[in-house]
């Protein structure tokens, strides 16, 4: 701000905010706030025009973004190291621990044409992010016409197809796990068709990494197989037959059967097969099981108590059951079900992906610097909540205001309240309807 005298040429300039390491804290906080809501310089111009203030230059905005990216990387690395220390039973420098992780890759754009991607590894025990790898296929300096610059500059993190991003990112994370985290990721929880597992199954030695399935993907596979069968057989579709609603019902019951029989392979197989016949049964064709008052089927509970149970389900006719049964029974094989015995999911990875793409808009291409900044901020929020993001400003020595501390604390409380509400039995039942 500058004060000028009306009677003479005297003027006096001063800063309205503190200056830390040659950076104005208000400018740093402004860029920090815009990145929290996932907006860049274009949105900054619109905001400044609307509230009638000067627009910071694109160069200055980008410069502060790079500073924030460096600080966020330090804070995020510390949070991931703390998450690794929670798992390690012995904190000596020479030994390491073994653990299970859920692995998933995400892309900024759908399909196999995305230029930016991210691979995350989350601990099964603690549910916190242990490591991430951000990958981009584009760098303006690498693609410049200056040959001298191309030889000394190596910034693009991935050269190849977008589909190869995930296995390469997984390999890089597993390769540095012992050195950087003192951990060996010996249990790999991922998708059934994950190419990432093939790249790391022998990374600590031959067949040292075991593959497990996500329950959610098992359910999804049931639906995929049955819908594929339905598309081949036109006589399966129609009212009272293999409808999409019936397939969804089979998927849900399959997931329930698996979750109710964790670490019990034979019980899991029996339950998955029983739920198929339960869904296919109807009033004139009862195939409910198991029997007894402790049965999880209402029909058998009513029979054991000499009560009449009115079955309103439509079920399937016997000829359709015989057509569907071979396809479904392939999914009930013990070798297949053994992969989901621990009863774990990739929900944590999906949650992290959702947070990541809130910091980085999916509809606008971003550079690797912004991808890393948004990704590291997502790691911090996922592991430590909104209050963890304050450490980015503290890294510069900025004095954090009372309203900022109070507001971020309030956001964390809202998130905890929503999480508790979504975990209630009533909420879970409502989501299934």
Structure explained in plain terms:
Residues 2-282 form the Mutator-like transposase domain. InterPro entries: Mutator_transp_dom. It comes from Trichonephila clavipes. This is Mutator-like transposase domain-containing protein. With 433 residues, the chain is an alpha/beta fold. 51% of the residues lie in helices and 11% in strands. The protein has 18 helices and nine strands. The strands form three sheets. A five-stranded mixed β-sheet has the order 7-6-5-8-9, with helices on both faces. Strand 5 (97-107) and strand 6 form a beta hairpin. Helix 1 packs across helix 3 and helix 14 (347-359) packs across helix 15 (368-384). The N and C termini lie far apart (59 Å). The mean pLDDT is 83.
Topology (elements, then pairings):
Layout: E1 2-4, E2 11-13, E3 19-20, E4 23-24, H1 25-36, H2 41-51, H3 58-87, E5 97-107, E6 116-123, E7 129-136, H4 147-152, H5 165-175, H6 177-181, E8 183-190, H7 195-200, E9 210-213, H8 215-232, H9 244-259, H10 265-280, H11 298-304, H12 318-330, H13 334-337, H14 347-359, H15 368-384, H16 390-395, H17 402-422, H18 425-432
Parallel strand pairs: 5-8, 8-9
Antiparallel strand pairs: 1-2, 3-4, 5-6, 6-7
Helix pairs in contact: 1-3, 3-15, 8-9, 9-10, 14-15
């Amino acid at each position: 701000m500058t004060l000028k005298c009306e009677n003479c040429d005297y003027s006096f300039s001063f800063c309205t905010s503190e200056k830390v390491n040659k950076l104005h804290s208000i400018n740093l906080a402004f860029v920090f706030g815009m990145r929290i809501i996932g907006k860049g310089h274009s949105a900054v111009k619109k905001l400044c025009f609307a509230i009638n203030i000067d627009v910071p230059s694109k160069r200055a905005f980008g410069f502060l973004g790079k500073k924030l990216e460096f600080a966020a990387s330090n804070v995020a690395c510390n949070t991931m190291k703390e998450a690794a220390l929670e798992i390690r039973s012995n904190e000596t420098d020479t030994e390491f621990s073994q653990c299970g992780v859920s692995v998933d890759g995400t892309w900024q754009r759908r399909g196999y044409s995305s230029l930016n991607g991210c691979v995350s590894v989350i601990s099964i025990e603690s549910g916190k992010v242990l490591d991430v790898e951000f990958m981009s296929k584009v760098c303006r300096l690498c693609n410049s016409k200056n040959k001298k610059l191309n030889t000394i500059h190596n910034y693009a993190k991935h050269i190849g197809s977008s589909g190869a991003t995930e296995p390469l990112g997984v390999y890089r994370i597993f390769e540095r796990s012992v050195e950087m985290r003192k951990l060996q990721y010996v249990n790999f929880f991922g998708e059934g068709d994950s190419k990432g597992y093939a790249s790391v199954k022998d990374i600590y030695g031959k067949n040292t990494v075991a593959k497990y399935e996500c329950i959610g993907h098992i359910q999804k596979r049931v639906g995929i197989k049955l819908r594929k069968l339905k598309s081949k057989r036109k006589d399966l579709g129609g009212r009272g037959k293999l409808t999409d609603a019936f397939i969804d019902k089979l998927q849900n019951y399959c997931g329930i059967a698996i979750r109710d029989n964790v670490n019990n392979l034979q019980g899991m197989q029996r339950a998955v097969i029983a739920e198929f016949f339960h869904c296919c049964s109807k009033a004139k064709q009862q195939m409910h099981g198991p029997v007894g008052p402790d049965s999880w089927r209402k029909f058998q509970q009513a029979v054991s108590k000499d009560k009449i149970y009115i079955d309103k389900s439509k079920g399937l006719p016997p000829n359709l059951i015989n057509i569907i049964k071979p396809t479904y029974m392939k999914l009930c094989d013990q070798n297949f079900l053994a992969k989901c015995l621990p009863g774990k999911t990739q929900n944590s990875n999906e949650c992290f992906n959702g947070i990541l793409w809130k910091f980085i808009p999916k509809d606008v291409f971003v550079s690797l610097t912004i991808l890393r900044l948004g990704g590291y901020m997502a790691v911090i929020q996922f592991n430590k909540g909104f209050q963890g993001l304050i450490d980015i400003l503290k890294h510069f020595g900025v004095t954090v205001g009372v309203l900022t501390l109070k507001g971020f604390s309030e956001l964390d409380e809202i998130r905890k309240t929503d999480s508790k509400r979504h975990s209630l039995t009533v909420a879970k039942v409502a989501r299934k309807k």
